[in-house]
Every structure is written in structure tokens, then in C-alpha cells.
Design a protein that fits this description.
- There is one protein chain.
- With 309 residues, the chain is α/β, with parallel strands linked by helices.
- It contains 8 helices and 12 strands.
- The chain has a single domain (41-305), classed as 2-enoyl-CoA Hydratase, Chain A, domain 1, CATH 3.90.226.
- Helix 2 packs parallel to helix 3 (89-103).
- One of its GO terms (molecular function) is serine-type peptidase activity.
Length: 309
């Protein structure tokens, strides 16, 4: 060991040993710390507002938000805060499908404010649970078909179908009936055994308030937003969580065509969006899932008044 080279090798080995021990000690201290940080990462319940008349633009924003929440790993559950009379049939259906996809992956609860009527109820029906207040109004499962003004065209046409704005009268009514059946079928399927009324009764488009909505199975229990948030968190297995509020709809994109048409059950801020159904200066039919009767439009078919399924 008197060889200088041997002494340097021995010293180097001792140094490496010390460094290895230090590294192990540091790792032993860091790993539990890292684990504790991971364990305390924030987990969220997201509250998404659906509080306007449903149009293609508002639905697009909401669908995009729901898609983002579905892929966001920090969001464990979602609560829909619904206070809407419904709106466009096509837009309502797109929101229904988005909620259904989300509910297949995460708990989705709904808290109803003033109302979740027609297309807004369609949006909410895939939820795991629906909370209502005693004054909340839910239901009104049906479709309204409207044409602007008096519904008559004085323009010359090049073919018989042109007078029906691209479809025959039979095709028009068949489309409305198909939409109605899809809506009624979704309610019956999604609510399942919780419904205490028949499919025929659902198709009659009744609307129920508070306790009666729970009795009929249109809603699950009386409770406000906080109860819905707590329920969603429990369903996701969260004991500690934060709440994030999302308001995806863009009010400035709406074109309101109608207003209140009376008091009581029929009072509503009914609205319809012309685009994308029309071009400038050209009127066309609207298919609506909305609570109330839009003004400035002639209702040529209201499945809610027809009954049947």
C-alpha cells in the first residue's frame, strides 16, 4: 500500500463509497417528500353553467368544454348547473351526446336552478343524479316545428319540394316525429327504473316542479348546487377537493327572436337562432326543444300537444 498509485486508488474508492452513501440518504429523504406532494395534488369538481337558451353557438362552446373536462385528469367529477328553457333541437341533441360521453368516464351530476325544460332537460338526462329545488321546473319532453311569419311563401318555385323549403310536408312531419321519439326514448332509457310514469306520459310533455319531479322520477332528490357538488365528489371518491366554475356559453352570439308570451306555465324568454338554418333574407323552419311558444314564428307542429310516443 506504499505504492503512491495504490494509495490514490484506495482514496478514490473511499470517496466513491461516501458519495454513494450520501446519494442513498438524499434519495431516502426525497422519495417520501415527492410521494406526499403527489398525494396532495389538487383534485377538482368542475361546475359547468348551462343557463341560456340553447343555440348552435352556445352548444358548441359547451360541448368543447365538456370534451376538455373529459380529458382533464385533475377533474374527477362534473356538475351541470342548468337553468334553461331549452332551444334548438339539433343543438340540444349535441349537448346530450356530449354529456352522455362524459358520464361514461366520470361522475356527472346536475343541479337545476329555475328550470331544465325541454332541450335543457335533454341535456341533463344522462347525468348520474339530478337535483332540483322545490321551485325548479323540469321536463316538457317534446319538439316544436315553426316557420317564420305566416308560414306561407309567395315565391315562385322550380319544383314541388321547393315550396316546403327543401322537404315535402310528409318529410317535414316525419322529421319532427323522429326527433320526438329520440327525445322520449332518451328520457325513458336514461332514467330507467327511476321513472314512475309511462312512456306515453313522458311523450305528453308535462313539466313538473320540485317534489313532483322527484316523485315521477324526472329528478332524484331535492337539493341545491352545494348538495350536487358534494354528491358528485362522493361518487368520485374525493374527501378533499376544490371546485372550479366554467361558463362556456357566449351570450353575445345569440340572436333573440322572441320574448315573454304570457304569465304562468307559458311564460318564457323563448329564443331561436336563425343561423345556420337560413341565409340573409331567406326564412326557413326551426326545430325547437323549448319551453313556451316563440313569438314571430308560426308553430305548425307541436309534438308536445300531440301525445303518443
Amino acid at each position: 500500500m506504499n505504492n503512491p498509485i495504490d494509495r490514490r486508488v484506495a482514496t478514490a474508492l473511499r470517496s466513491y463509497t461516501v458519495l454513494a452513501v450520501v446519494a442513498l440518504l438524499v434519495a431516502a429523504a426525497i422519495v417520501p417528500y415527492a410521494a406526499s406532494v403527489a398525494a396532495t395534488d389538487d383534485q377538482y369538481v368542475a361546475v359547468v353553467n348551462v343557463d341560456e337558451t340553447i343555440t348552435s353557438s352556445s352548444a358548441q362552446s359547451t360541448v368543447q368544454e365538456l370534451r376538455a373536462l373529459r380529458s382533464n385528469e385533475s377533474v374527477e367529477a362534473v356538475v351541470l348547473r342548468v337553468s334553461s328553457p331549452g332551444g334548438s333541437a339539433a343543438a340540444s341533441e349535441s349537448m346530450y351526446l356530449a354529456v352522455k360521453r362524459l358520464a361514461a368516464e366520470k361522475p356527472v351530476y346536475t343541479s337545476v336552478g329555475q328550470y331544465a325544460a325541454s332541450g335543457a332537460y335533454y341535456t341533463a338526462v344522462p347525468s348520474d343524479r339530478i337535483y332540483v329545488t322545490p321551485a325548479s321546473l323540469v321536463g316538457h319532453v317534446g319538439v316544436i316545428g315553426t316557420v317564420p311569419g305566416d308560414g306561407l311563401s309567395s315565391a315562385a318555385t322550380t319544383g314541388p319540394d321547393k315550396a316546403h323549403r327543401g322537404m315535402t310536408r310528409d318529410q317535414y312531419f316525419a322529421s319532427l316525429e323522429s326527433m320526438k321519439r329520440s327525445f322520449v326514448g332518451a328520457v325513458v332509457t336514461e332514467r330507467g327504473d327511476r321513472l314512475t310514469v309511462s312512456r306515453q306520459t313522458v311523450a305528453e310533455a308535462s313539466a313538473y316542479t320540485g317534489g313532483r319531479a322527484v316523485q315521477t322520477g324526472y329528478a332524484d332528490e331535492i337539493g341545491g348546487l352545494e348538495a350536487a357538488i358534494a354528491g358528485a365528489a362522493e361518487a368520485a371518491g374525493l374527501s378533499e377537493y376544490q371546485v372550479t366554475y366554467r361558463n362556456p356559453a357566449q351570450p353575445q352570439s345569440l340572436l333573440l327572436l322572441a320574448g315573454s308570451n304570457g304569465a304562468g306555465q307559458n311564460a318564457t324568454a323563448a329564443a331561436a337562432e336563425r343561423a345556420p338554418y337560413t341565409f340573409r333574407g331567406v326564412d326557413s323552419v326551426h326545430f325547437l326543444m323549448i319551453y313556451g311558444t316563440p313569438e314571430h314564428q308560426q308553430v305548425v307542429y307541436n309534438s308536445s300537444a300531440q301525445g303518443g310516443a
